[in-house]
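Fold this: [histone H3]-trimethyl-L-lysine(4) demethylase
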Amino acid sequence: MPLWPSLPLGEEFVPPPECPVFEPSWEEFQDPLGYIAKIRPIAEKSGICKIRPPPDWQPPFSVELDSFRFTPRIQRLNELEAETRVKLNYLDRIARFWEIQGSSLKIPHIERRILDLFSLSKVVTDEGGFEMVCKERRWARVAQRLGYPTGKNIGSLLRSHYERIVYPFEMFQSGASLLHCKPKHYDGEDVDKEYKPHSIPLRQSVQPSKMSSYGRRANRCQPDPEPTEEDIEKNPELKKLQIYGAGPKMMGLGLVARDKGMRKKEVKKEEPGEEYKKHKDEEEGPCTKMTMRLRRNLNNPQCVDSFVCRMCGRGDDDEKLLLCDGCDDNYHTYCLLPPLTDPPKGNWRCPKCVAEECKKPAEAFGFEQATREYTLQSFGEMADAFKADYFNMPVHMVPTELVEREFWRLVSSIEEDVTVEYGADIHSKEFGSGFPMNNGKRKLTEEEEEYARSGWNLNVMPVLEQSLLCHINGDISGMKVPWLYVGMVFSAFCWHIEDHWSYSINYLHWGEPKTWYGVPSVAAERLEEVMKKLTPELFEFQPDLLHQLVTIMNPNILMAHGVPVVRTNQCAGEFVITFPRAYHSGFNQGYNFAEAVNFCTADWLPAGRSCIEHYRRLRRYCVFSHEELTCKMAACPEKLDLNLAAATHREMFIIVQEERKLRKGLMERGITEAEREAFELLPDDERQCDKCKTTCFLSALACSNCPERLVCLYHTQDLCNCPTDKLYLRYRYTLDELLAMLHRLKVRSESFDSWANRVKEALEQEEGNKIVTDDLEMLKMEAAEKKFPDNELLQRANIYTACSVLMDFVLLCISERKMTLAELKSLVETMQNLPCVMNHIYPVFVFKAVLQTVEAYQTRAQALVNDKDWRRDSPPPEQLQTLLEQGGKLPVVVPECELLEGLQEQGHWLADVRRTLGTEGGERQEVTLVVLRNLMEAGCNVPQSVSVETAMAELQELLTIAERWEEKAQICLEQRQKHPLSTLEAIVNEAQLIPVKLPNILALQGCLTRARAWVTDLEEIQNGEHYPCLDDLEGLVAIGRDLPVFMEELRQLELQVASAHSWRDKASKTFLKKSSQHSLLEVLCPCAKRRERRDETEPLDDPLDDSDTNTLGLSAQDLRDPAAIVMAFKEGEHQEKEATLKLQKTNMCKSGLNSVCVCGGQPRAPQLRCHLCKDWFHGGCVPFPSLLPSSEVSVNPLCWWDWDSRFLCSQCQRSRRPRLETILALLVALQKLPVRLPEGEALQCLTERAITWQGRAKEALETPELQQALQRLQELKETLSCEGDKGGGFNKNFKLSSLLNNLDVCVGSLLPLLPLLKGQVVELSPATRVQLEELQLEGDLLEVSLDQTQTIHRVLQATSVPPREALHTLIQSCHVLVLPVHLTGPLIIPSTWMRSCAHQNGLVQ
């Protein structure tokens, strides 16, 4: 069995037994401290217990979530456990030992786990030491004790690692020399793992990062990544440590060169001059790291004497002479013990400096504060994310047993480093309590007021009357004022006992459970002995370690050493109580919020005094003075209850006896001077014993020569060395005053016996000597004033003094209400048995006569009730009414009256059933399902008989039939499967035969009525003069779908509507632009109300003008008349033309400052005028024409009249303007529809309008004048091309035909042509020109693309002067436009040819 008391390798944690759990009733729960005293004999044996309040006790959570912010503590789990911390501290020291000698320590791995160097050292020491183990070949036994398997030659590995790493350190610790030991260096071993030393100063100095989570699960197999230089610059701690590469990371090592470009240098022998130069450079500048510092200069005689070996005294063999980086002493490498074969890399220190460094005491261990401040929400998000990530499952699904095993595994691991945060010891006075409080900060609700007064409220419990802490004036945070705790998974509270060994109570407001472990007070000293025995290294520097709440130890280890331990999981809404001097610890299963406080009861007083004696031995500060608390209670004994007074008397007696003995000792020493001192008025730090730190109250010894010091009477020898006559006693009370206080306590505690004797005497008087009730009431009042505990005598007195209450009660019964028969019998019996005299009440015989009258009435009523006739039918109503009237006159409530009333109700119910079913004469009332169910329910509450059972059967049968038909109707109404009209009519006709009003049947009947009306409407629409309109059909379809009736016509209507919608969608895609704001009908109809752009101050037209019904100025009903649509369309054409002419006139008169374009902004370049409305538009707001037509049309770029310069704005060209052939295809599809659409009729009108215009345009273009003009334009196009082919005036490599056939024309290349364009190409007569302009206006208004429109535009362009400014704007606005396919390059026209060609054709001047 291993000597070291850790758990065997791989053995899982075994949960200790459960602590007691108590569930008080509501009555027990009303007295918190009384209930705790009741369960104390059982719970105290376990140290802790759990209390589950009644289920209805759920206090509201009262913390202000918005203002609650806290900074948690950081907990590294493996530093909490005592044994693990000892191991980590050992690794810190051994790592430091090797580092200050220039060697980096890496911990080896054996069998895939890190080697525990501390346990190895302990086992080897236990086996007799290194020499003994080697001599007797016990390394296999060492491996077995460390838990390694046998037969793998692990003992040899352990010996090698011990000899290389541990043995030099152990020998150094013992002060012995290491002879013939050549330690090796471990930088190159692949199996070793870098060890991060856990030195206490380093742990406490490094502040955690605000951005990253503290909790992490260390990787056991791979070493941590090395910090980069960027990390070092950003992290002040790394920058201070100057760590680079592998090796132990300790403060002061300086293993990184500050110059990033500086490389590691090899150790080599140098010439003296070079060596001196190097030495000088190192002294003046920063020393290069990772380099052996051989500072020696033979040319400098002043330095020769200082460079000699401190071991041999010689200065020869320079290359082997080492310089200590700590004290600058010199040593030969072979003079060292052990000798060094190679110079160390990096800083090196001599044995003397190593000894000084390693003997520095470690600082006390404690938790550090996090740097981030949390709210409850942000902490909860962090805590839940950490737990879910750690266990890889939702937080609520992680078993508590798994968390418990993992917690104890982590705290025992030196390899895994998991860090968590714990919001512990948060002051509720500053941040607010989780319980409601009457502190005036906000108004409480009635429910909150109740919980604010509850004794289980942790703000109230410490100051309850039975609690001793209520006699302490100040607020002691954590004892009288609760502390708050916000936990996350694995956050722990370590083994500790409460201050002054008081009780504590912890309430978990919400969140995941908190796991507790407890040790009873009888085993407290055993626990302390075990922990000191197993980890003496920790207690060596911190004797009061267990009072610091920073150390835990595995409960299994404690139990293995005889310490009884219990556990429990505290869930939300549960209390955990810890008893005096009961050690407890635990951890949180996840995110939760708890609150805790201390309290003290009368039974605590002896434990509190023992605690002060314990503190005195440890020289630990007190939270309050135990003597002061006891004396304060003794000063007012009348305010104490009997139990507390008796306990205070016993405690005070011991204190007075001890004080008398101590003062007597001072008298024997000759100290006679004394002065009174009100110690309670002094601050605690001014009345503490200079030796043991105890807070003095009753007395203290002081010296007139040393006024700043005082001691308690237990340490009078430790005050000072002044003469005895300079010493004097400072006291609070004289001995006589203490004895008087003790006497008053005794009187108070013994007053109960005197009272009890008088009560016994009063209650045991014989008949004729009974006392009056007033005397008993006085004894009862005395017990209440003196706060006597509840007892049997007091209970008997309460019963007997109830005589006066009984008298008042009887009078009240006679005057206001009737007594029950039981009350009357109890009254008679009580009056006969009372041991006291009542003078103001009726005699007993009066009540006996009333009782006899009642019993006679009961006999008559029972005879009627037990009669067998009424079971077949109800009793006669007259007889029932007579008995009920007689019973009503009695002063007592007779039970038989209820039976008679039941029989009377039975008769009334049968009458209601007969009227409902129509079995009686008279008018039959309307019967509904509710009426039937009410009758059935009432029938169950009346006395049963044959008549009642028959009526119930009839009602049940009728109700069953009615509900069945209701269910059928409900199924039909739910439309899961529609039924034909005839089926539903049959159901309704059959259901109407039932004499019950059924809502679903009535609803189904209404549906049938609507279905018949639907069929009638459909026939009227289908038999009309015209095809039905789409709106009418859609309305019928919507109505038909809502009806739960199957109709064949509905499917046909749906198909017709769907085909109409399909045609409309196809027409919309043909006409409407993408994201168009216009409807299809608006586009197809003339724009009768064209918007005219005026000043911004003028209001726009009515926004409803753009709706479908207002497009043609027709109502929805008029849109159903084809003739009306045609007439409105014709009228709209005329109005559209007039509105356009008016708009042109208005826009042509605009000044340069008017708003233009769709954006309504000021004029700015580039801008272009719309060909139709004549308004100006910005190039960035609307798309301009491409100038060159599409690639499908062969265009000569020299014919400027063929350029696509015709620009229509988005308000004038509202659609895609499909070709007439596409529209005709839509009309053919429209003719196949059996439905009329307004859009279809508008499309017919538009088509007719387009065909009419096309005929007029063709007729105009076929006139001789226009045919001649068109021929002239064709000739010019061909002439320009042929002239270019001749190549006159060009170089031999340029041909226009080749240019036009092989190049793409870039719009930008047309820019040189603009200044050369001139005059009219063709001439027309004014009449012809006017005719063409009118045709062009009407053609531009058509939302149809026609070839004649473009032809008329070309002719009119050729008859006018070239619009150079507009063409210039278009060329600049367009980027790159492509001509026909046979033009494949940018047009580059030589200026000589361009001028020649233009002059020949009269195009330019």
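The longest helix spans residues 735-763. The chain has a mean pLDDT of 75.
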